[in-house]
Amino acid sequence: MVDVVHEQGGRIVLQLCHSGRISHSFLLGGELPVAPSMIAAVGSLHTPTINVSLGTTHALEIEEILEIVEQFRQGAKNVLVAGFDGLELHGAFGYLIDPLLQDGSKQRTDEYGGSIENCSRFLLDVVATLANVWGGDHIGIRLSFSNTF
What we know:
Blueprint: H1 2-7, E1 13-16, E2 34-35, E3 44-46, E4 51-53, E5 58-59, H2 62-81, E6 86-91, H3 97-101, H4 116-119, H5 121-134, E7 139-143
Parallel strand pairs: 1-6, 2-5, 6-7
Antiparallel strand pairs: 3-4
């Protein structure tokens, strides 16, 4: 697909995200979705076979947060190898980065909660990781500070 876009003179960017608390154990092999805190998102999962409320989450430990940053690094490498022209980090609408930035979706008191600096730490760590792979000129970020997730 990337080659076809390039052959037509176009550019193509891939969006990276982590669903975080807006996922459901149904989609995760029975595992709980991860979140900054054990605060379930309001909403439902709709598939052709089920319609269920989003449920309980697993509050991320610091080691797990660091693992997710490394997963973003590998994702960025995969996007680069696949030949895309850039990537966008999805940090909006309840995806994992968003609840770490919002007051109502986290109750952390460690280095990922409390102050603005701490609440933005995960986002900035991920962006630095992506920039380490791509350089800073080919990365975008999608944020939504006024959403209700």
